[in-house]
Amino acid sequence: MTQSLEGTGLTISLPDHTQLPESNGEFVKNFHEHPQSIILTDSIEPVLQKIHPDKQYAIGQDSGIYWRITEPLERGAEAPDWFYVPGVPPLLDGKLRRSYVLWQEHLAPLIALEFASGNGDEERDSTPLSATGEEKTKPGKFWVYEQIIRIPYYGIYIFDTGELEVYHLVNGKYHQMKTNQRGHYPIEQLGVELGVWEGSYQNLNQNHLWLRWWDTEGNLLLMGSERAEQEKQRAEQEKQRAEQAERSQREAIPKLLAMGLTVEQVSSALGLSIEEVENEE
User: Fold this and answer.
1) DSSP label at 75?
2) pTM metric for this prediction
3) Phi/psi at 49 (nearest 5 deg)?
4) 153-158 and 111-116 as β-strands: parallel, antiparallel, unpaired?
5) How many alpha carbons fall within 13 Å on the CB side of residue 49?
6) Is 10's pLDDT higher than 50?
7) Per residue in 198-214, pLDDT tens?
């Protein structure tokens, strides 16, 4: 893409998402990261589909957000473990996104989450960009998210301890949020709450601590597999109720007949056919 330099009459060519590296070559640091991202995305999709009936939103999972041009190029990106951007198309020119490019889209994510394998110091790094241009240390991601990308909500989840910190951008500065009475952090624009849940997922049979979403009434937002299991249980309960009602009806037939009611009267009272009543005599 090209961009005009205001007041100079010049244009420059900036790379788009197809021309920027997808990875900085680092390994994912924790086996929890992939299932954790799936849990967050899967459970909040029904909410996002209601908020965005036009499907104009994007979710990034360990994907780069490019905010400046550097050499090498990937040094100009941060890659939150999970982030959500409202008001942007899920595809660009019919292609899957390879990264999220700020100078191409001009919209910041509403929320970004980092899953810390350590104690969270890297995720809290507020080292600013060098003003001299001689960059000896890469700017800290906390500073980038706060001062450059300006992400309204930034969460740091520490896997080892299950601790969650959430920061809210107010007047250009991050302020650490306090939990509500349920121990959750309200994300008002989404109408959800973010918190920590203990349970099993995939082949992790023992209970672990996971980041999960709740609605504003404190109801856990379920994943697709949980919704399917809930529906299966509901259908089974309904089946059992129907079977119990049928047994009760049939058990009532001889009692009503013994009380002197005719077959026709029992049939009418129980909503059964005359044949069904006669078969139970």
Assistant:
1) G
2) 0.79
3) -70, -30
4) parallel
5) 6
6) no
7) 998 876 656 789 999 99
